[in-house]
Amino acid sequence: MILNTELEYKGNLFPSKIISYEKNRDTLTFTCENNVALQVTVIRDSVLRFRFSTTSIFEKDFSYAITKYASRGYNFLEVTEDDTNYIIKTSKLTCHIHKIDLRSAIYDAKDNTLICEDELGFHWEESYHFGGDIVKMSKTAQEGESYYGLGDKPTDNNLKGKRFENWVTDSYAFGKHTDPIYKAIPFYTALHHDKSYGIFFDNTFKSEFDFCQERRNITSFWAHGGDMNYYFIYGPQMSDVVANYTDLTGKPHEMPALWTLGYHQCKWSYYPESKVKEITSKFRELQIPCDAIYLDIDYMEGFRCFTWSKEYFPEPKRMVKELADQGFKTIVIIDPGIKIDKDYWVFQEGLENDYFCKRADGPYMKGKVWPGECYFPDFTNPKVRDWWSDLFKELVEDIGVKGVWNDMNEPAVMDVPGKTFPDDVRHDYDGNRCSHRKAHNIYGMQMARATYQGLKKFSYPKRPFVITRAAYAGTQRYTSSWTGDNVASWEHLNIANVQAQRMAMSGFSFVGSDIGGFAEQPNGELYARWIQLGVFHPFCRTHSSGDHGDQEPWAFGKNITDIVRKFIELRYQLLPYLYTAFWRYASEGIPILKSLVLFDQEDRHTHHRNDEFIFGEKILVCPVNAPNSRGRRMYFPRGNWYNLWTDALVEGGQELWVDADLDTMPIFIKEGAMIPKYPVQQYVGEKEIDEVTFDVYFKLGKESSQLYEDAHDGFDYIKGRYSLRDFNLIGKDKEVIIQQYKSGKYDAPYQSFKLEFHGVPFKIEKVSIDKEGFVCEDIVLNGETSIVVDKNFREIRITGK
Ligand code: MIG
Fold first, then answer.
1. How far apart are CA 428 and CA 437, in angstroms?
2. Alpha helices of 506-544 — where are they, by DSSP H?
3. What CA–CA distance (Å, rounded) separates 790 from 478?
4. What is the pLDDT of residues 508-526, one digit of tens each?
C-alpha cells in the first residue's frame, strides 16, 4: 500500500527543472532535465488536460471515458514566461507552470483568485513488479475547500476528510462506509471561496483519492499504473463543472423512451410465467401505474444467457406480447459469464472465435458464477462487442424484449479472493493489450456498451434501454444504472438518496436504487418512505432479493398500497417535467438531480447538506428518513418555495420543521415555476394526452420554465421533430404575464394547456391572450382559478385587483 506520509522515504521520484518548451497548436510540452515531460492541452477555455511522462515519451493516447463528441476549442490562448514560470492564459484561466519542478498553479483569469495549486505535484514510484509507474499527484487544499462527486461512494455528500479507492467491486449488502463498491468514477468537484472546479483523473487502474484525510490541508490522488493523466475543469459554477465533465465523458447518446421513466417492478425472481402475469395483472387491478416488468436469472435454461427455461417460460414470444398488450415492457437480465458447455451455441461461438478472456500463460479465465464454471467474453475487444451485440437479435427483434439488465459485470466471480478476475488476465483493450489491472474498471462499462449496441440495432426504430451495475466514467453514454445490492434499512434509504445525488454530480443522472432494499425486508413504513424518495430518482424501480418476502406495492396492506399509488401517480403526472429535465441533461449535461451545493454554492449552509435535493430545475425534495416521523427539519435553499400540498409559501435560507405524515413528504416548488403535468396513466401511452396542465406558481418578479416534448420514442427528434417551449413568468402587484417561445418541428397531439394558478395575491379579473382581451368566466378568488388556453399562445396577461 502506498501512503502519502511515507512519500519522501519510499523512493518517490520528482520532475527536475524544465529545459525545453514546445507549443504545438493547443498542446504545450514541457520537458525536464531528468526527462520528465508534461503536456498541457487546452481543451476549452475552462478545461485543461495534464498528461505526464516519466521518460518524455508519450505513448498512444487512448481513453474509454472521453467521447469523440466532446467539444473542443477556445477563444484565447497565450503562453508567456517570466523568471519562475511559464504562464498559460485562456479567457477563463491563468496557469503557471513552475520552471524548477513542473508544479502548476491555476488562477481565475478574471480576478486572479488561486483556484488549484500543486503541493508536491506530480511524483511517482517505479513499479518493480509490473513495470511502469505508480503515479501520484498532491495538491494544496484551499481554505474552506470541500469536495463532492466520485461516483457511487455510499457516504456523506461532502467527501472532505475521507479517503477512497476506485476498484469496481460486487458489494452485496454494502454499508455506509464500504469502499470501494460497484462503480469507479474518478471525478470530483471542489469548492472554495464560492468558486468551483473539478478534476477528472482518467486512469483506469486502481486509483485512490485522499481529501484532506491523511494531511489536513492536502488533497491527493494516485493510481497503481498508467499515466498521471487528468483534466482540470473550471466553473466557477459547479453546475458548469459538471456539465463540462459530462461533455467530455459524454451525455446519453439518445433520449430515453418516455416509458423508461415510468415505474419498474422487479424481483429475484418472478417465475414461472403465471407468477409474472399474476404480478402484472395485480398492478392493473389495483390501478397502480407500471411500465416495466423484469425477469431475473431464473428465466434462463440453467442460467445460460440468451436461452429461456422451457419449463417456466415455454413460449416467451407469446408471453412478452401479452404483457405488451397490457402496457408492460419486458426487461431481462444478462450476465457476462458464459457457461462452459460444449453443446451451448453461445459458448461454442465464443470458443471458436477466441472471444473469451485468457490468463497470462494462455489458459482461459475460468470462474464460477450462477451457471457454474464459466468463461467470460473480453468486452474490451471490438470484435467481441460486435458479436455480443448480435446475440440480442432473437431476444429483442423476435421475442420483443424491450430492455436488458447487465448484472455481475464488475466482473463478479464467486468463491475467489477479491471476488473478481485475477490481475494477470489479458484483455484486448481496443488493440492496446493489457492485463486486468488496467481493464478491470472498464470491463462492465464495455459489456454495457456492447449490450447497448445490440439493443440499439434490434430495437430500431425504437430507442434502446440498458441498465448496468458496474460503471466507469463515461458509461452514462450507453446505459442507465442502479446502485446494487442495498439493504432494507433506514440507513440505506439515506445512502440511496446520497448515491443518486452523487452519481448525478458525477455526470451519470439516470440512476436509482432498489426501492425498499434488495437484502432483507422493509416494513410498510420504510417501503412507503422509500417509494416517496424513489419517484424522484431518474430510474425508479422496486427490486428485492425475494428470499425475505414480497415487495410489491400491495405487500404491506391497503394503507401502504394507497400511499404508494399516490406517489407513483405523482411520478406519472410529472413525466413531462422529468422528461424536460432529462432533455437538459442529454443536451447540455445539466444533472437531473442537484445537491443543494450544486444548486446554490454561495450559500455555505449547502456545503454539508445530504438529504435535500432539487429534482429537475424547480422542485425541492427532502425524504423522511426515520421511522415514526410526522415530519422533519430540513434546510430550504435561498429563494421562496411553495409547499406542494398546501401552497403555503416558505422563505428559504433557513432550516425549518415540515409536517409530513406517512402519506405525504416534504416537496416544495420554486416560486415562479410552471410545472407541466400529464394525466395519470397506468403506463406511458395508455392515454392519448389531450391537454397538458401547468401548475403556475406566482412570483413577484421573473422566472423561466421549459417544456420539452417529442414523440417519446424513436429518433425523429434528432431530425428536429421536437418541441421546446420556453416560458417567462413575470409577476407584478396586480398582474401576471406569461410569455411563450416555441422552437422545433414537433406538434404534440393535444391542443390546449390548462393553467392552474397558485399563490396569486390578487383577485383575477381579466385574462387576455395574445393581446386579444376577454373576460374570463371562471373567476375564483385568490389563486384558485384555472384557465384553458390554446397551447400556442404567445402571451397571456392576467390582471386583477
Ligand atoms: O449474485 O441476479 O445485484 O439485482 O437480483 C446475485 C440475481 C446476482 C445481483 C444483483 C441483483 C440480482 C441478483 N444478482
1. 13
2. 524-534
3. 38
4. 999 999 999 999 999 999 9
Amino acid at residue number 675: I
CB atoms within 10 A of CB 240: 18
The two counts, helices (H) then strands (E), for the chain are 11, 51
DSSP for 674-710, please give it: EEEEPPP-SSTTSS---EEEEEEE--SEEEEEEEEE-
Is the separation of the CB atoms in 484 and 470 below 8 Å? Answer: no
Cite the active site residues: 407, 410, 485
Please check whether residue 356 is in contact with residue 350, taking contact to mean a CB–CB distance below 8 angstroms: yes
What pLDDT digit, counting tens, does each position of 136-159 carry? 999 999 999 999 999 999 999 999
Query: Cα(291)–Cα(293) distance, rounded to whole angstroms?
Result: 7
Determine the atom of ligand 1 nearest the C-alpha atom of 414.
1
What single DSSP character describes residue 328?
P
Question: Which of 181, 296, 305, 415 should be mutated for ligand 1, with most atoms under 8 A from CB?
Answer: 296
- Rounded CA separation 566/558 (Å): 12
pTM above 0.90, yes or no: yes
Closest CA to 179 of 213, 145, 146: 213
SS3 645: coil
Is residue 297 within 6 Å of ligand 1 at its C-beta?
A: yes
- What distance in Å separates the CA atoms of residue 778 and residue 770, rounded to the nearest whole number? 19
